[in-house]
Amino acid sequence: MQNSTPHKTALGHIRVLDLTRVLAGPWCSQNLADLGADVIKVERPLNGDDTRSWGPPYLRDSEGKDTSEAAYYLCANRGKRAITVDLSKPQGQEIIRKLAMQSDVVIENYKVGQLKKYNLDYESLKQMKPDLVYCAITGFGQDGPYAHRAGYDFIIQGMGGLMSLTGERDDLAGGGPQKAGVAITDLMTGMYATIAILAALTHRDKTGEGQFIDMALLDVQVAMLANMGSNYLTSGSTPKRWGNAHPNIVPYQSFATSDSHIIVAAGNDTQYRKFVEIGGEPTLADDPRFISNPLRVQHRDVLVPLLKDMVKRRSKKEWITALEAAGVPCGPINDLAEVFQDPQVQARGMQIQMPHPTAGKLALVANPMKLSKTPVRYEQAPPILSQHTEQCLRELLQFDDEKIAMLKSQGII
């Protein structure tokens, strides 16, 4: 439905009406925007997406003053056109209904049944547009005993088992469940929703038939358990937390160096021998308690403290240089300054600069999808609140100056 773009994009023919906020939904719609879709982000007048105020830090304008755009909001809203509409008012609902008729996809993350009272749910909209792809993202899905509960990433990480697997062993200092450092369930829900939408669009293109997509954070978290979920279903044994260690390989964990931390993943006896020889402790390779991986696993509580003392004698850089030269799998634990200074990250173009209407320019993390024929595009910085309201209403709904002025005066847009 979108007008042709200056260069070829995978989704340049698709328009998305984005009624989501916070992270899971916006992450999905940003993916679609990066791939060329025309994404129209609908927000509440005055306040907008909750994440606009989730700071500090905030984006600074050209004079160095904080704007109203939190860094959290900026991470998930590039490539979109932003409009403000009050869905609680009938005229606002009619605007959304008309925009949906001009769109291929609607994405929303309202509570179950909340949009039905506005006749903006899938069943209502598909009566007018049978080929519409409609994706609803909730915490627990459209059915089941928890369907009407609000879902938050942190809670879902706990309920869905991830935190039972993440964190140091209970018998060690600092042991206990830990959440992931980023909202990984929200992000993966956004990714699964992206895939589902693309599948539904392919089905629509073949059959002319739209469909409803029911995405739930809890479902995604359970699916993300991957091999750990399979391990439990196969064995009946509940996996436990191992922190940064491995249940079946020693040494396969992080270690503190003299100045930072490294990861050593010695997957066989030869790599283990090289590791301790580089560390100046060759006798640890010949000790009968440690000569094979099964024995090292059996005696990990004796061996690991000895390895920790050994690793602390050198710096992160010294260890990485020596281990890489010897072919021992290893890596640094980088902070974010080190991540964005890493030559491989730079070579892969994982930081981008975009022009911004108030900041002048804006640094963002790039999309990792690298397509040879239809590359991702970076044509629109995360929009300021209501930046494109008039443009979209004029272009898509043919509203004139008088109509727009009336809607503004009534607080509908």
UniProtKB/TrEMBL annotation:
<dbReference type="GO" id="GO:0016740">
    <property type="term" value="F:transferase activity"/>
</dbReference>
<dbReference type="InterPro" id="IPR044855">
    <property type="entry name" value="CoA-Trfase_III_dom3_sf"/>
</dbReference>
<dbReference type="Pfam" id="PF02515">
    <property type="entry name" value="CoA_transf_3"/>
</dbReference>
<dbReference type="InterPro" id="IPR003673">
    <property type="entry name" value="CoA-Trfase_fam_III"/>
</dbReference>
<dbReference type="InterPro" id="IPR050483">
    <property type="entry name" value="CoA-transferase_III_domain"/>
</dbReference>
<protein>
    <submittedName>
        <fullName>CoA transferase</fullName>
    </submittedName>
</protein>
<dbReference type="InterPro" id="IPR023606">
    <property type="entry name" value="CoA-Trfase_III_dom_1_sf"/>
</dbReference>
<keyword id="KW-0808">Transferase</keyword>
